[in-house]
Give the backbone structure.
Amino acid sequence: MNTVTIRYFASIREVLGTGEKLDVREGATVGEVRDALIARSPGHAAALARGKALRCALNQSLSDEAAAVGQGAEVAFFPPVTGG
Amino acid sequence: MDRARVSIQTEDFDLSAEVAALRAADAGVGAVAAFVGTVRDRNDGLGVSSMELEHYPGMTEKAIEAMIDAALFRFDIHAARVIHRVGLLQPQDQIVLVAVTSAHRGEAFQACEFLMDYLKTQAPFWKKEHTPEGARWVDARVSDDDAMKRWDLASANAAA
């Protein structure tokens, strides 16, 4: 089993909090992590719903959902960025 | 020791001081291009009384460092400095500084614009503005993704 650290930002953070932990299978992808989180609660399902414009980062680098999360990875989900 | 290229901070910055530091001890510099972004008192049809800037500590610095590396590789520039403020800001406050030095102006102008376009679409910041109708998160703009195309870089930040 692989325990990954999940982090949320902006409007996602307002609904789900700053983050949580999740156990995933070896070789799980960011997409599978998102699906597992969606299944956690109705609040999760609404905030992380497929069809919402969500971006993700793996170990603090922008990622796509096909990427495999390694051991003890940090996975973040957030809305499109609006800096600058 | 090299000065930091990227600073994420709540404090305001001094444009003159930053430019002076960036081109200090480099007599080969013939051009400095600097951009400063500031808080407007109006956005998307509503007055803005204040704005909160959130970021992803760790990723923010790393992401902007990589953007500066990309600019140094792509343009014939000497150095670049990016400062981005976070926390609670008021209209007319400075938000962001992008400053670039080079021998000639063409590269400096281009690299400065490149860094701003890149930052707008990939740096992990989020703005929440306070309006007469309540607080709302600012939406990302498709026009910022479009701006990346002129640098031949695909961007899908604002896309649904």
